[in-house]
TrEMBL record:
Gene3D superfamilies: Spore Coat Polysaccharide Biosynthesis Protein SpsA, Chain A. It is an enzyme of class 2 (transferase). CDD domains: G1P_TT_short. The gene is rmlA. It comes from Christiangramia forsetii (strain DSM 17595 / CGMCC 1.15422 / KT0803) (Gramella forsetii). It comes from the Bacteria. This is Glucose-1-phosphate thymidylyltransferase.
Length: 290
């Protein structure tokens, strides 16, 4: 399976913070936001990842992440000229995807929780489509899943004014290769965007859509507003300081996923200087080599 991280958009809900910098490059506590969805795809065992950015921001992402070889990965980059919707990611990434299955992660979504790794890896051989549902207070901001009394999916709507349930679809999707052709059939919505919900609806109509409800042990943040960005930052800060761990540490994930060996991990701290992040990596590398 290949992976795509959509890191475009104008981030207008975060203005003036995002006037001069991509939302996905903003800090969430001690690391750039993009590290979190990247670590999620890597935890799923995905090494080949395409970053879709705005034209103005691509060089900054390349400077931050490089070509991925230091992490045992292969990173590629493409541009989304205008914020035309999530479904366009599969059209932009058609050549990159080739004949493979693909996971799409939104660059401003953060996931954490017990059992996350097993959950992710169970989706990488998906037949059809596999997405998630998460209960929220403001479902009108998201794609919304409606279930019947037997918990079977009845419908999916994108940002409905009158949501039919409290279950939002988080920004993490797993698809078979049919997604590319489905994406080409999507017509722009009233918002002028090619909605990912339209793709999910196509899979649903073909009885090929699986929706798993995320359990209480899972945490999901869509950091598209100042309030949610602040909530995510506080969540990461508290958890890391209490547990002496690092969430979204891409070098650690690369090692634990066996993308890189002990020797490679032990050298990667140097680029981070005397930062807390660098110290964490240095200590981890030294412990492993003992």
């Amino acid at each position: 399976m290949k992976g795509i991280i959509l890191a475009g958009g104008s981030g207008t809900r975060l203005y003036p913070i995002t006037i001069a910098v991509s939302k996905q490059l903003l800090p969430v506590y001690d690391k750039p936001m993009i590290y979190y969805p990247l670590s999620v795809l890597m935890l799923a065992g995905i090494k080949d990842i395409l970053f879709i950015t705005t034209p103005n921001d691509q060089e900054a992402f390349k400077k931050l992440l490089g070509d991925g070889t230091h992490l045992g990965c292969n990173f590629e980059y493409s541009v989304q000229e205008e914020p035309n919707g999530l479904a366009e990611a599969f059209i932009i990434g058609e050549k990159f995807i080739g004949n493979e299955k693909v996971a799409l992660a939104l660059g401003d979504n953060i996931f954490h929780g017990n059992g996350l790794v097993n959950l992710l890896r169970s989706k990488t051989d998906v037949s059809g489509a596999s997405i998630f549902a998460y209960p929220v207070k403001d479902p009108q901001r998201y794609g919304v899943v409606e279930f019947d009394k037997d918990k079977k999916v009845k419908s999916i709507e994108e940002k409905p004014s009158s949501p039919k349930s409290k279950y939002a679809v988080p920004g993490l999707y797993f698809y078979d290769n049919n997604v590319v052709e489905y994406a080409k059939k999507v017509t722009p919505s009233d918002r002028g965007e090619k909605e990912i919900s339209s793709i999910n609806q196509m899979y649903l109509q073909n009885d090929a859509l699986e929706v798993g409800v995320m359990t209480r042990g899972m945490s999901w943040f869509d950091t598209g507003t100042v309030e949610s960005l602040d909530d995510a930052t506080e969540f990461i800060r508290v958890l890391q300081n209490r547990q002496s761990t690092m969430i979204g540490c891409i070098e650690e994930v690369a090692y634990l996923s066996k993308f890189i060996d002990k020797g490679s991990l032990a050298k990667l701290y140097k680029q981070y200087g005397k930062s807390k992040y660098g110290e964490y990596l240095k200590e981890m590398g030294e412990t492993i080599l003992q």
